[in-house]
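Allow me, if you will, to draw on your knowledge of protein folds for a short while. The matter concerns a single protein, recorded as an amino acid sequence and a row of backbone structure tokens. Could you please explain, in whatever detail you think fit, how the structure tokens follow from the sequence? I remain grateful for any guidance, and I place the record below:

…
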Amino acid sequence: MDNVFELFRSRFPKDRSRPFIETGGGRVYTYAEMEDASGRIARLLANLGVSPGTRVAVQVDKSPETVFLYLACLRVVAVFLPLNTAYKGRELEYFFGDAEPRVVVCWPEAEAGLRAIAGRAAVAHLFTLDGAGGGTLMDRCAGLSGDFPTAARAVDDVAAILYTSGTTGVSKGAMLSHGNLGANALALHRAWGWEPDDVLLHALPIYHTHGLFVAIHCVLLNGTGMLFMPRFDVAEVMRLLPRATVFMGVPTHYVRLLGDPGFRANGRALCRDMRLFISGSAPLLGETFHAFRTLTGHTILERYGMTETGMNTSNPLPGERRVGTVGFPLPGVEVRVAGADGRVLRPGAVGVLELRGPNAFSGYWGMPEKTAEAFREDGFFITGDLARIDGDGYVHIVGRAKDMVITGGLNVYPKEVETCIDEIEGVVESAVIGVPHPDFGEAVTAVVVRRPGCAAPTAAAVTAAVKDRLANFKVPKAVHFIDELPRNATGKVQKNVLRRRYGKTPVPAE
């Protein structure tokens, strides 16, 4: 059987009374409770007609029950579709219409608003699940048996669809198989040297690769436990650090820790029993890297991954963790740097990073043309990230071939925001860029051309219009007005010019 849940179960502790999840409130869920709860949810899904390949869309607050729901989908071989909790109606309309889920799980407050959207997408069942584990989903499976036989699944069968986007603003569903997830989990567990007594401090959201797959899969393979925070909070992280050995965060988390007076005063003592700090989802500044090492004595391990592939490279556990790099390819992963024509470039040259390995996705849901464009004939995936590989083999990510903005570890694709702004009365056109931000790494920034002779929108009106339609992390933190956008000879907007112009003065932290 190649169902990835069975891979995890083969590593569960023999004593199933061992803790799997401990919440901030002190509630402990054992491995036995996890197996039972995921089995009951899997039985409910099966009773509702969820069969292999059926999509289950989930937009809920982080909770242990959300993890159990994910594991239930693996057991019943449904396709898990996690959605960012910040997505709003317009975005959800697209995801539901594209993926056609049979089951949708949302938080209770969103149920009324989602019914119309779910109805238009022919969603058969709509359940609720709140951050405390309450809601109609758990109510419906309360009396069911948790003794559910995990269904067989081939390694190439899809286990999850995670939506990413291109600069055109069209979201694409990356299909990740049981084999992709299992191979990446095994590689990371080995590369990061997980030990029998490791405890993960989990402060990440679980609607994307980092928090859901990378963090939780390593814990499952290790058969140990995690301290499960509903969200990142500096004070709570500081309280729990002495009980943990591994922490995974985005650069913003490390910046905020370093900015806290209590952490600056006691960081070394708080981190005394920590084994490993890992950073990803966005570039880690050298200043943060060095300051954290000086304060705590720990060198952050930076790695590189994508929605389509999980993790691809990592700085070494033993050996030099080189600042400004994302380390070496993980076992089984091949990387190369190529020109636009696909020709492999010499070491040290900058080009587009391409990779191949058992972790790489099979393609984009319902988009065979986009899938074909994403792969070379020899199977290498074209990441779109600009990189170079130095003489020692370290991979350096030097930019993005596309103009994606990464703010607080989350991806923002300018075209989507630009479309919203361009629809505002009095706007001719807009360009969205990322500029330096001391907390989030990059701040979403809009440059807007107003229409002469009519009521011109203010910066506040622009941000309000975007906030009403898109997730908050996509809302511009700064809006600049300009008479016309700079363009090259072919008419393409020169965003590099805008970044130079407006990036000289970083957007201040709130």
